[in-house]
Each structure stands twice: as structure tokens, then as C-alpha cells.
Amino acid sequence: MGEEAPVSVGEEVEAVPAEPRQEEVKVAATSAVPAVESGTKELPQYMHDAVARIAPEQGFTPGQFKIDFEVGSGKGDGFVGEMFRARITEGARELVVLCKIPPINEARRQQFGSMVIFEREVEAYSKLLPAMYEFQREKGVTEELDVGFFNAPKCYLSYWDGPKEESAILMDDLRLRGYRMWNKMIPVNYEHARLLMVQLGRLHAVSFAMKDQRPEVFEQFKLPDPMTRMMLEGESGAVFVGMMNMSMDRAIGLLQPEEEKLRQKLLKAKDSMIDDLKNLTSPAQCEPYAILGHGDCWVNNFIYSYKNGVPTEIVLLDWQICRYVSPALDLLYFIFGCTDGEFRRKHYDEMIRLYHRSLTELLEKLGGDPTRQFPYTALLRQLKQHGKFGLFMAIFMVPMLCVDNADLPDMDAQAEKYKETKESGGMEELDNEWMQMMTKSEDKYRKRMGDVLRDLARFGYI
């Protein structure tokens, strides 16, 4: 999960984006030469081939253009993929695209079962998002009107070959148009959260409209949750469950003696966590309100454009976990993972109402009936019914959001070490190393995670 950030991380000062961090350029190949070693990694030939394939489509002359690659993400930006920036040049002409591929390191690729979610993201860019855009345009809702959902990156090519363990998604480099990402270490503020609520409302509204008016087209949207398969089964499942159990124990340890009632609720949630995650992501538990959700609503998966330091537009990145689930999951994931207690005390109700108002407005424009298809009372019930999802995602995300990227482990090295320790029976040592790394920002974590637990209890979600 997590987009391998193609841009620099924005700063909190009145949401003014930071300048792009300077990445080390890694020369890889030209259009006539196979991909070669880039730093410590050899870039796969299929990634070069994918870029070479789109070049003529974008007006470059076959045999005359050159392709260079450079790093597109940093440590801690994502978990299950890698991002490179491809620069296509011919004379004075240039086109820069982002290339997202599965981990080059085999141990890391196998550990996270990343091919499953790359297949899903390719499906999103090649089928689902285009179908949503086309449906809106048929209804007279176009990009120019700025009332619909068109807020995903432009995709030049999406490719997936499971047996070969190959996948490449080539996207627009939004950094070149001034887009910046929020600093993951800082809880998201009002203006940035507001933009997300508007777009999540619109995203979900399109699903509700298509589900009702184009049921035959919408059948392809009824996708099972890939996170359950990736995180609860096989090797990656063992890693995830172990990490979640440690994180849950750490969170429970934050409670005061007088919070025994909450402690017992959390212990019960820990015991039923795996079954709960499967049920919470099952559409059968939320019909008739299941829609296509984004699935991975944490701060590194959004990128913003600004005017005079104020965010004016948001684009949603990383569609690897889009799935047919309750609309409440996207909201719970973001609000309890990426905002803090002060924000929720001031703005929680407003954010939920803003989301539903945005959904209602677009659904009506698309010919739907919000009072029948998803009234506000149904949203409140969905939030309460799925509230534990906010707990589990916060347990997973908050520890990493409180640790500086420089202190996070190298994912390739960690995967190799996991493979070695699993074979030698040294998993306890690896678990201890992970926990020691996570406790490097204990004060920040105690405040943020403690507020999550108490807020979830206050809302009646656990």
C-alpha cells in the first residue's frame, strides 16, 4: 500500500508546498539500448520497452528519441512498489512520465504479494476510471465544469503480466505542474482535508449512479478486496498480522488505569481482528450501499496544486486497493489515520457533512436520487457499523506516520532479512528491531494514537 511518491513532500507553513527535493539522476538507457544498471539496481527491460512504446504515440520519431531514468521516490514513501521518472527527449522536445513498477527486489516482491495489487491498479487505469469518466460526460458532467470526479493522474499506459511478474503504469508527472504532497509527519489540516472530502464524495457518487443506471457496466466494479489477500494470507499475511499484533499491544499500553473499559474493548478487537477485517471489507455487510472505494486513503496518496499557498485541487494517486466496499471505509481510513484529535474535535462532523453534500450534489447531477440511494442517516449507520476499520488502519498507519523517513528501514534490506530470519527461526529478533525503530518518536506517537483510541470510543465506533 502507499504510492511511491513522485514528488517532494510539502511543508505545513500555511500549506505552502516545498521545493522538489533533488534526486540523484540514474541514467538507464536510450531507445536503442536495453536497460542497464541504475545505482544498485538493474532496471527491468520491460519498463524501458513500455516507455519506448508510448513515445511514438506522443509524437516522437522511432529510432530518434532517447530515454533516461531517474529515481522517483524516497525511503518511506511507499511499501509495495517503486517509482522512476522517465525522460523522453528528441532534439529540443521533451516528455517526462512517471513509471510505477513492482519491487525489483525479488524477496520484497514475494513478501508483499505485490502482483495482485498491480493487477488491480492496471484494471483501474485501463477500465474503471475511463468508464467513470465516460459515464459522467454522457450525463453532461465534464472536466471543465469542475463538478465531477476526474481527479486521477493521466495514464499513458498500464501493463500487467502475472506469470512474468511484470507490470508498468506510466503516468503524468504532476510535479511539473506545481503539484506537491503533504508532509506525512504532520496531521492533515482543514483545507487539505476539505478537498479530499469533496472528491471522495464525488468518486462515490459516480459509483452510486452507475450502479443504479448502468448495472451491466457496473458489474466490473464489484471487485473483491485485494488487501485481505495480500495482508492476511501467505508470507505477507504473517508479516502483517505480526506487525498488527505488536502495534495493537503498543496502543493498548497507552491507556491509563481508569480506562479499563476501553482496554477490554481493544483486547477484544485484537482477538477478532482478522475476522473483523474480512467482514468489514465484505460488500455483503453493507449492501445496498457498496461502491467502488479508493481503498488506500492515506496522506502519501494525495497530491495538491496550490494558488497563493492555498490548496486548490487534489489528485488521488495509487489505485492498487480500489475495491467494492462500504463508502465509510475511505472516510474512516483517512480521518483516523491522517488527522489528529484536535482536528476531529473541531471538524469531524463538518467533514462528514461536507463529504455527503458533495456526494449528493453530483449524484443529483448524474440523475440519481440521494435520498433513496444513500441518505445521510445511512452514512452515519455505515460509519458506526464499520468504525473498527478506522481503528485497524490507524494501528497500521500512525506508527509509521510518526517516524521520520530517514529512520525507516530500507524495504529491500528488510525483505531480505525477513527471508533469512524466517529460514533460521530468528523472527523474534526481527520483530524487536521493527518495534525499536517504531519507538523513535514515542512522544508524538503517544499523543496521536491515544487520541485515536479515545475518539473512536467517543464516537461509539469501538
Automatic annotation (TrEMBL):
<protein>
    <recommendedName>
        <fullName>CHK kinase-like domain-containing protein</fullName>
    </recommendedName>
</protein>
<feature type="domain" description="CHK kinase-like">
    <location>
        <begin position="169"/>
        <end position="365"/>
    </location>
</feature>
<dbReference type="Pfam" id="PF02958">
    <property type="entry name" value="EcKL"/>
</dbReference>
<dbReference type="InterPro" id="IPR004119">
    <property type="entry name" value="EcKL"/>
</dbReference>
<dbReference type="InterPro" id="IPR011009">
    <property type="entry name" value="Kinase-like_dom_sf"/>
</dbReference>
<dbReference type="InterPro" id="IPR015897">
    <property type="entry name" value="CHK_kinase-like"/>
</dbReference>
